[in-house]
Write a structure and sequence with these properties.
The protein contains 6 helices and 5 strands; from the N terminus they run βαβααβαβααβ. It is α/β, with parallel strands linked by helices. The protein has one domain: Rossmann fold (3-Layer(aba) Sandwich), CATH 3.40.50.300. The protein has a 5-stranded parallel sheet with strand order 2-3-1-4-5, with helices on both faces. Helix 3 runs parallel beside helix 4. Keywords: ATP-binding, Nucleotide-binding. It comes from Ectobacillus ponti. It holds the Pfam family AAA_33.
């Protein structure tokens, strides 16, 4: 029987480094990297003006992305998803992607403090001025209100990485 790919995905507050870590992991694993930000900006250019817009477009993407990722996993290729797994509901979606095709998975939890994330967001604002409208402390506080840290009871193969102070 053909070996299935492994699904890798990330949980972490805004600014925790999910995108950077996903790029590094995809290179290490020679895996397919899928970025939600890239899909949304390509499919819905200049249409994301608020967090609510992001949520709407993210929800529209999910059925297509799920089928696409499952096809890649069935072909035996690892997939790294730069899509946030920051709530129990979102993490269940990732688990369903893998379990429905009997593929293995790994949730990587970037467990950084609010202060560490805000420092990284401030740095990113300088390096990527086009993100300045969204990379603010106010947006961080709003988005962090929805964050749910993963729990063992959710049944994930999880690797927790703590930030270095």
């Amino acid at each position: 029987m053909k070996q299935l790919g492994t699904l890798y995905f990330f949980c972490g507050k805004m600014g925790a480094g999910k995108s950077t870590a996903s790029k590094q992991l995809a290179m290490e694993k020679q895996a397919v990297l899928l970025s939600e930000d890239e899909w949304i900006s390509s499919l819905y250019p200049d249409q994301v003006a608020s967090f609510e817009d992001y949520l709407k477009f993210s929800a529209q993407l999910k059925p297509l992305v799920k089928k696409h990722v499952q096809s890649i996993l069935r072909a035996g290729t690892d997939v790294v998803m730069d899509f946030p797994a920051n709530t129990q509901k979102l993490r269940k979606w990732f688990l369903d992607i893998a379990s429905e095709v009997h593929a293995s998975h790994q949730l990587i939890f970037l467990n950084l403090s609010n202060e560490q994330c805000l420092r990284q967001i401030a740095k990113r604002r300088k390096e990527q001025p086009e993100r300045a409208a969204f990379d603010t402390e106010a947006v961080f506080i709003h988005v962090t209100g929805f964050f749910e840290a993963p729990e063992a009871s959710e049944g994930f193969n999880m690797l927790e990485l703590n930030g270095k102070e």
